[in-house]
Amino acid sequence: MARKMLVDGEIDKVAADEANATHYDFDLFVIGAGSGGVRAARFSANHGAKVGICELPFHPISSEEIGGVGGTCVIRGCVPKKILVYGATYGGELEDAKNYGWEINEKVDFTWKKLLQKKTDEILRLNNIYKRLLANAAVKLYEGEGRVVGPNEVEVRQIDGTKISYTAKHILIATGSRAQKPNIPGHELAITSDEALSLEEFPKRAIVLGGGYIAVEFASIWRGMGATVDLFFRKELPLRGFDDEMRALVARNLEGRGVNLHPQTSLTQLTKTDQGIKVISSHGEEFVADVVLFATGRSPNTKRLNLEAVGVELDQAGAVKVDEYSRTNIPSIWAVGDATNRINLTPVALMEATCFANTAFGGKPTKAEYSNVACAVFCIPPLAVVGLSEEEAVEQATGDILVFTSGFNPMKNTISGRQEKTLMKLIVDEKSDKVIGASMCGPDAAEIMQGIAIALKCGATKAQFDSTVGIHPSSAEEFVTMRSVTRRIAHKPKPKTNL
Amino acid sequence: MTMFRSISMVMLLVALVTFISMVSSAASSPEADFVKKTISSHKIVIFSKSYCPYCKKAKSVFRELDQVPYVVELDEREDGWSIQTALGEIVGRRTVPQVFINGKHLGGSDDTVDAYESGELAKLLGVSGNKEAEL
User: Fold this and answer.
1) Which CATH number fits domain B33-125: 3.40.190.10, 3.40.910.10, 3.40.30.10, 3.30.1540.10?
2) How far is the C-alpha of A473 from the C-alpha of A322, rounded, in Å?
3) Which member of B51, B92, B94 has the closest CB to residue A255?
């Protein structure tokens, strides 16, 4: 085959590859069939690639040898968590219903096992849908543990222990992340979010360690279902990294709904007793619970992939180092999703996977774009944000920042009598009038914020927000009626140094 | 019919006695007594937590009015949880801060700020709400 020449006289690498074509079993082999892996496999196949994918056997609780098609999000993450959040929300709704004329005369009981069964049925249904999506895209699915044995070779250890090797022009690591437990004496008595979503018995007394979104969500879930909940976290407020004003409101709402908050407190020891699990806090206090949840972080699933032996660079946390196109230092090996520890959210993994497929097989090199990624914390009521927090805006500012806030008791609460404020906030760059951050804590925050995220992605100005007619009566309309500035933050230029 | 009425009366009495005993038991715990004693002994009382931003906001309102409230920092007391529970039963809210003026419940942080901005708080305290007016 004649080699094509480029204008500058260099050999066209693609043509050269074709000329010296090596035969591979697959154009792409994906390790991990979670959100990112399945998306990458399907979209690459749609571009005409021959694709193989491997995933560990299914079980709701993961381990190094257990997983399931659908990955964390579908099996032991966002989806089952949201189902439990819905379940927990009904408790408050029933209370609120009384002032709306609903007479609930009989004792209302909550049956954990019934909800658990419904949740399991749903994740099994989704697991099958994901398998069908792969089959419909002509992606070959292998059940077993994959590891990289060369720049173009993957070995899959099947359930019966036999190992089969496959060659591929490209290998994609999409193995996600797993919950970790801090090394506290007695840590084996604690559970992670995996087990929390599949508990046999409902915990009447729960202790949660952690200040992140998973900790806050489970505290809300269990409290909403009637448990006594104690939440321990290291900082003064939960949800480090979110807007401070929103963090304060989330803390207040948790407390208002009956969660016992223990700020600036960690746990030093867990022991098994007849009464339950005894916990000692860093302040020397003793607590007893049926369940202790450690929600202190997750780490990338890369330990058993043999990546370093092949020369793939990992960071200190074990995350796969990649460039803007999700490519590792080995040109044939790529990685997306939590395994790369960039922004660990399902929709981000989906975006990275789409960009990968376009780059590797679509003839359209595409970088993942991480600005204005919206996200939500499904505590009760939820928090949702997009763009910069007030603190981030001040940190990154090149000019003055305008902060607009609206705090109010939602219309529904005025009748139900619930004392729970909603807070909405816009951060505006004064010079350009662009809205650079939005956040909301209150009912339907996530649903509302998705629309706001589109506006921010389009570079909307505060004037454009103001000229938008609101939907009345709704909480959402507050985002287009914030006329007066709550505070102006003057830009403080960073001191120049000679360093 | 008379029998039905007397049964109803008995049931009503039982319910009333149960309710009164519940209220009195809630109201007669050592923590509830502490809350009541504290709010009756001081002009301004704030039940607070040292780290809480809403509590800081409520305290700053009284600073603006040159008033010194009596502050109970629940997170710095051994019995803080129990006091918070008792407080919740008395005022119907578990959140902090809870502010009392002259023995009467004013409310939380937002209520305090609203009362300050409307001039109601200054009136309750018998002080001038506008510092500039004093100059």
Assistant:
1) 3.40.30.10
2) 47
3) B94
